[in-house]
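Sample A.
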Amino acid sequence: MQATIEHLGKIVNNYNRRLEAIPEEEYSRKPGPGKWSKKEILGHLVDSAQNNIRRFVVAQYEDLPRIGYDQDKWVALADYQHYPTKDILALWRLLNRHICRILAGITPEGALRKCAMGNDQQYTIKWLAADYCNHLLHHLHQILELDPIAYP
């Protein structure tokens, strides 16, 4: 888990300044009908952090909790499109730092406990944490218009 914690910390540190440099107009622009703006993608990353925090905590004391979420509804209901970007960025940073602290407290045995996702597939906390980093990078590359990172 230590490698994943360090990786997540580096992601937040390395991408934060780049995210802060994006102009507000660019964050708010929607690329097309039914597509998320960069601000909404960042909001989705906030939602993902919140749901993964729940997974990382609950899976340590409940047997095979099922924790999924409807990402489109979360983004719409949180109304990230009209949320101050600097606040979404601050929340994103803090939630990811919090995830690092939670992961640091998980025992090796705890890292092997499982959680079911919305699709009922079961994953260990260790796998979910590594996957969370990949998901984060995928969307950060979308926001920053960098070479795509494939993510299922």
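Sample B.
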Amino acid sequence: MTELTIYLAGEIHSDWRDQLRVALNELGIEAVFVGPQEEHDRSDDIGELILGEQPNQRYRDLMGASVNTLRTRVLMRTADLAVACFTEKYRQWNTASDAGAAVANGIPLVLVRPPEFIHALKELDAQADLTVETLEQAARAIAYIVE
């Protein structure tokens, strides 16, 4: 069986990544998972931790985003596949940005989104290699790749 490296794009506040890992494990799929920093405070603070204190919130966020974007670009390019998961609770501009980056870099994309997001994500849906509504569907599609 082929081991995949999967970039997990999406909000970092819920446990959707763990749910996908469990679903893939139950299907016997071995994978390496990469993605954004999942510790929210570290993600927010990283710009100042590396570059020093910034003069205001705008630059604090910008420097943090620069470091996080570097991480995303490096790790995404190691991936065989990207899964972009849109959940119902959080605004997810980063998820859309990462999904677009995957498409732009030729990384196959599985888009996971609830039915109520069909209209809002229609352009991204059209660019994804596969769009599903549940993490279980995404896991079964990934399992099919390596069977």
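B remarks: The radius of gyration is 16 Å. Residues 42 and 58 are 17 Å apart (CA to CA).
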